[in-house]
Amino acid sequence: MGCNLAIAGVTGAVGQEFLKILEQRDFPFDSLKMLASSRSAGKKIEFKNKEYIVEELTADSFEGIDIALFSAGGRRSKEFAAAAVAAGAVVVDNSSAFRMDTDTPLVIPEINPQSIKENKGIIANPNCSTIIAIVPVWPLHKANPVKRMVVSTYQAASGAGVSAMLELEQQARDILAGKKPVCRAFPYQIAFNLFSHNSALGPNGYNEEEMKMINETRKIFDCADIAITCTCVRVPVLRAHCESINLEFTDPITPDQVRDLLSTAPGVSVLDDRENNRFPMPIDATDKDDVFVGRIRQDESIPDNRGINLWVAGDQLRKGAALNAVQIAEKLLQ
Predict the structure, then answer these.
(1) How far apart are CA 176 and CA 236, in angstroms?
(2) pLDDT tens by residue, 149-167
(3) pLDDT of 234-264, one tens digit each?
(4) Full residue range of the structural domain in which residue 251 is found
(5) Whole-number pLDDT of residue 1
């Protein structure tokens, strides 16, 4: 069964990843409309041996469209998603615009696919850091409820778009050539440096990225009382996020039990080679669908063997964004 598909924001980093994944997974579509801002309108994109002309994203873009994959930023999602829904499309939105709306399902297919059918025209894709963190935490939480979760992220430049990735590359060249790096996409030098995530700080001292992880995890897990704290950091990596995750469980759990649970968990690959000190790295996760998990060990500071430490790596553009949305679209067609 095919569908009439639209991609809003097709020329961006996630939009381009949409196309790559749609081709790799042989996503069934009868027609494809490529949409972007007026700046990109008229560009030609080759996809599956056919040339497409990028059209300007407007309120009139969605006639006859069944599924619209949005990655054009929160402002454009708020501006155009309602028009897509009114035209009869289901919107899978990659921005933060609708994630915390009570009427909008927030979905990771490995965790809560049942929420997809509850949509009222819009399904929200979670934040990339949230997805990469909780795909491996969920099977553990199902087996032994997590009481508290402490996360520190090491987030790639790709989370801020193509311009940020290019900036990392250019700054590295400039610094190695003895030139002063120029900062445009980021407020601070990203090459050979790291800094607290560049989203706005709230009155509680947490930035928006940290609060997204906290609130989205509670919503996806349908667990309002899970205690979560996060520290989100930008690092000079192109496209795969890493995260250090500390979990406190309700009941005792061993590292071997965690490995067993994760070895059969969907969307997870265990890379936990203590003998060779070999654990997940960004280069392992880049261009891969799975979230890689290692450094699985007991947290000896938590009594009764109820604490576990994990280290994860996941491709921010892929599972952290485009792949998750395409998986949702695949479920819509089932």
Answers:
(1) 15
(2) 999 999 999 999 999 999 9
(3) 999 999 999 999 999 999 999 999 999 999 9
(4) 130-316
(5) 66
Strands 307-315 and 240-249: antiparallel
Q: Do 108 and 168 fall into the same domain?
A: no
Residues 136 and 273 in one domain: yes
3-state secondary structure of 161: coil
Give the Cα separation of 190 and 174 in Å (integer).
12
Average pLDDT of the chain, as a whole number: 97
Number of separate domains in the chain: 2
Active site residue 241: yes
Q: DSSP per residue over 273-305, as a string?
A: BTTTTB---HHHHTT-SSEEEEEEEE-TTSGGG
Residue 98 and residue 169 in one domain: no
Active-site position among 128, 230, 232, 242: 128
In angstroms, the Cα distances linking 256 to 260, 261, 262, 270, 306 are 6, 9, 10, 12, 13
Extract the tokens encoding 55.
């059209």
Report the predicted TM-score, pTM, of the whole model to 2 decimal places: 0.97
56 and 37, same structural domain?
yes
**Nearest-angstrom CA–CA distance, 44 and 73:** 22
* DSSP element (H, E) containing 194: none
285 contacts: CB under 8 Å, gap ≥ 6: 240, 291, 292, 313, 314, 315
Say which range, 2-6, 172-176, 276-280, 295-299, has the weakest mean pLDDT. Answer: 2-6
Which candidate in 3, 141, 241, 242 is catalytic?
A: 241
197 is catalytic: no
State how far the Cα of 287 lies from the Cα of 285, in Å rounded to an integer: 6
Compute the CA torsion angle 107, 113, 119, 121 (nearest 10 deg).
70
Average pLDDT over residues 186-190: 98
Burial (0-12, 13-18, 19+ Cβ within 10 Å), 310: buried
pLDDT of 23: 98
Q: How many CA atoms lie within 13 A of 143 on its CB side?
A: 17
